Amino acid sequence: MPNIKSASKRVEVTRLRTMRNTRIKSALKTTIRKFETAMKTTDKEEAGLSLRGAIRAIDKAVTKGILHKNAASRKKSRLTKRFNKTTG
Questions:
Q1: CATH pick for 5-87 out of 3.30.420.10, 1.20.58.110, 1.10.3210.10, 1.20.1110.10
Q2: Tens digit of pLDDT for each residue in 48-68?
Q3: Extended beta strands in 1-88, E state
Q4: What are the tens digits of pLDDT across the range 18-55?
């Protein structure tokens, strides 16, 4: 437990940011999971829509500072490659 007032404020800010980051990461993983389930149903249109949603969520995570831009690019590339391989 911090003794200094500014240190206790930083603890609170860190806690809030951690909660926010966890929410965004969880939502990102959920959208990717939705894409993977849509791929299993083999409905091209639904899979395409869920791919667009997953890519949008990945890009949002980059702007919020949750993901590094190269990690996001890698994830988007792998998802798109999986989509093109199945529908292709």
A1: 1.20.58.110
A2: 999 999 999 999 999 999 999
A3: none
A4: 999 999 999 999 999 999 999 998 788 889 999 999 99
